[in-house]
Each structure stands twice: as structure tokens, then as C-alpha cells.
Amino acid sequence: MTVIDAATIIGSGTNILFVTLDSLRYDVARATMHAGQTPRLAGIVPGGQWEERRTPGTFTLPAHMAFFSGFLPKLPQPQQPPRLWECRPPAFKTVDPRTFVFDAPNLLVGLGQHGYRTVCIGGVTYFSRETPLGSVLPDMFDEDFWRPEFCSPEPDSTRYQVEHALDVAGARADRPLFLFVNVSATHVPHGHYLGDSSDSWQSQAAALAYADEHLGDLVDGLTSDRRWLVVLCADHGDAFGEDGYHGRGIIHPTVTNVPFARMVV
Prior knowledge:
By secondary structure, the chain is an alpha/beta fold. It is 29% helix and 19% strand. The chain has 8 helices and 11 strands.
């Protein structure tokens, strides 16, 4: 595994793309890639393989609050690579010099202190501002965008999200950009990708296969003329009847095991 010196990369003002594939299970991501159904992602993630990691949250809100506080998904092993970013810790704790440390309550404020413009392209309704709770995550950004066609009931949601993300990224280049995209296609409902009203392991795989081309366009479009730190992961998974469980917000391997990748391109 290549260790990324995020302290130097972010400290120098490199643009950052952070994509969360909402509710995407690790086993679905792995099998879909091995079956050749996500060729664009296979060409992006290191070695053409997802890392298996454990999420700090079992549904969208706590997972993203953890991510934006410095707690990204961890490897299922005792030894961990340096964290990419971290809130300034208490004096007694030492931090790997390759970790980007921000002296702020969350990553977005910390990046703002380093001159970054922070932008959110929302997907699921936790980013919609339709309710007070749906404003908590968007409020953390300088700019946030959400439209109904960005959400999972829209079969072409990822295309709409990527088009808007590329427009936003191309609008201004006077400051380094932290661009966050919450991909909703892999969140229920996704049965429509198989022409069925029911959600399943298979329909989530079909949703990921649909999103693949557009995510490839996003990364290619952003990195054609600028250097980016790219982080791709799921916030949590989803149970489709395994051991009698359904949904998320539960401690079960189908929910806690998520795909993860990070690279500089």
C-alpha cells in the first residue's frame, strides 16, 4: 500500500475530490469490479481493486460526521496507515507527520483556514435541506447544491450530479477546491436498475455499474489539467435479508464493511 503524504499534498493547496457512494457494500463493489462491470472505476482505484475497510458509522449522518472530523474507514487489522486528515489532538498524542492536521472543529473549517473553497454536491436527503436535520451536513460547506434529480429515485441521478460538479469545479480556479459528492444511485431505491420495484444485492450492483461511467467522467474531467487528491468510499453498507437483517443503522458485516480507495492523480 502506498502511503500518501497528505500533510504536504493538502498543505500545498492540491485540489481534493471526496466521493461517498452511499450505502455501497464492500462485497457488491468487489464483485461488480471483478465481473468487469465497473471498468472506469477499475482504471481509477489503485491496482484495480477496492480496499476492504470498516466504517465508523452505520448510516449516512454519523458516518459523514466522522469522515469530516478526520475518521475515515479503517482497515480490518491492528496496524493502520497514517490518517489522511485529523483534528488537532490533545498535547499528549503524537500524529504521523504525513497526516494533514487542522486546528478546527471539522475538516471543512480547517480547509477554509488553508484557503480552500469547500463545495458539496448532495445526493441523499441528509444533504437536501428539506428538514432541519437535512441542513446539518450542508451547513458545514461554503457552498452546497441539491436538487430532486440528484437523489436515488431518479434513475440518472449520477449523471446530473457529475454534470453539476464539473460545472462548479470549472467556474472558479482562484482557490484550491475541496469537492465533495455524495452519490445516491447506490442508495435505495435502486430496484429500477433491474426493472423491479424491490431492492437487492443485484440491484445495488446494477446501480454501481450505471454510476461507473459518470464517475469516470468526473475524475477524468477534473484531473485533465490539475492535480487532485481523490478519496472514494462508501459511508456504510445495506443489509438485504442476511441473517434476517434489512437496511442500515445496525451492526452487521453487510453494513460495516465498505469499499475504500485513495490516490493522487
